[in-house]
């Protein structure tokens, strides 16, 4: 019996070790639920869920317009994707039928997250910061670089090039694409954003972006961007405006980011059945 004791002890040790390894292995293969958690600013933390959604829709529209700035091929792609109701779902906006759009969008988003400055696009007015962190003004970092060489930006932060797969970029894209059902709406139809004579009062030289206010208001704050080939002034290339039906009638190029209902995943029940399609229709 005494001879059996060491053997039994050894078997017990093996069983315990195996169980422990099983637990460790199981932990390692569990998905990391924090992987797509956005670093939020103090301002964002004070927002309600709907205020946060509205803010991030503003960024969706703003960056989409920036992708189109002086890019005739992407404007053509957008116009071809537009439905009869003048909308584009995000799955199509960032899909294979719209090549290059998502990459360009991610690059611009990365710049905004990490505060690349001086701003190479001379944007004076923007929506409030999309994602916060440890850097100045509630941003993750302040990256100072030659705007002509943006590829150095990620290297400044310890990476190896302009990183469109950064975890905060991924988290923001996940919020837009997987946590909500969103689309772009073009109240005036197709985009005619070009440089006809670069005349300041030609509406084709401007593009305005806004978001649905998530209430019954018929107006919301927006950003008006002028064509980047127009002469630079100290006012920069963007300005804050109020977008309402009269504004839509006076302008040509307008992009509105808004939600749409889709089953139980996107019921937006707290909005009381609000008809998103009525805003600026």
Write structural notes for this entry.
The chain is α/β, with parallel strands linked by helices. It has one domain. 35% of the residues lie in helices and 13% in strands. The protein has 9 helices and 8 strands. Helix 3 packs across helix 6. The longest helix is centred in the first third of the chain and has 26 residues. The chain is globular. The N terminus is likely disordered.
Give the N-to-C terminal Cα separation: 88 Å
Strand order of the largest sheet: 1-4-8-5-6-7
As a percent range, the share of strand residues is 5-15%
- Any idea what the radius of gyration is? 24 Å
Oligomer: single chain
The number of domains is 1
Structure summary, number of beta strands: 8
What is the overall number of helices? 9
Mean residue pLDDT = 75
Structural class: alpha/beta
Low-confidence stretches: 1-35, 132-150, 156-162
Shape: globular
Helical fraction = 25-40%
Order of helices and strands: HHHHEHHEEHHEEEEHE
Largest beta-sheet characterization: 6 strands, mixed
How would you summarize the topology of this molecule?
Layout: H1 4-29, H2 42-45, H3 49-68, H4 72-81, E1 87-89, H5 90-93, H6 101-113, E2 116-117, E3 143-144, H7 152-156, H8 167-177, E4 182-185, E5 206-211, E6 220-226, E7 238-243, H9 245-250, E8 253-259
Parallel strand pairs: 2-3, 5-8
Antiparallel strand pairs: 1-4, 4-8, 5-6, 6-7
Helix pairs in contact: 3-6
Jot down its keywords:
281 residues; alpha/beta; 6-stranded mixed beta sheet; two-stranded parallel ribbon; 35% helix
């Amino acid at each position: 019996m005494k001879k059996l004791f060491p053997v039994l002890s050894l078997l017990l040790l093996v069983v315990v070790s195996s169980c422990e390894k099983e637990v460790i292995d199981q932990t390692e293969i569990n998905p990391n639920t924090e992987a797509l958690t956005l670093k939020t600013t103090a301002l964002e933390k004070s927002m309600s869920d709907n205020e946060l959604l509205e803010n991030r829709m503003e960024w969706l529209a703003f960056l989409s317009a920036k992708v189109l700035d002086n890019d005739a091929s992407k404007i053509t792609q957008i116009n071809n994707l537009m439905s009869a109701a003048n909308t584009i779902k995000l799955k199509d906006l960032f899909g294979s039928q719209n090549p290059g759009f998502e990459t360009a969008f991610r690059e611009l988003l990365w710049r905004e997250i990490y505060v690349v400055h001086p701003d190479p696009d001379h944007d004076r007015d923007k929506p409030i910061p999309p994602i916060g962190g440890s850097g100045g003004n509630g941003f993750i970092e302040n990256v100072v670089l030659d705007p002509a060489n943006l590829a150095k930006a990620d290297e400044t932060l310890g990476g190896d090039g302009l990183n469109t797969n950064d975890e905060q970029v991924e988290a923001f894209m996940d919020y837009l694409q997987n946590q909500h059902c969103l689309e772009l709406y073009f109240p005036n139809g197709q985009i005619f954003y070009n440089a006809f004579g670069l005349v300041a009062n030609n509406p084709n030289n401007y593009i305005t972006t806004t978001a649905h206010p998530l209430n019954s208001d018929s107006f919301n704050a927006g950003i008006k961007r002028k064509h980047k080939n127009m002469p630079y002034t100290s006012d920069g290339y963007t300005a804050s405006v109020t977008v309402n039906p009269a504004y839509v009638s006076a302008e040509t190029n307008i992009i509105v980011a808004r939600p749409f209902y889709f089953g139980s995943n996107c019921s937006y029940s707290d909005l009381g059945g609000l008809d998103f399609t009525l805003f600026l229709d």
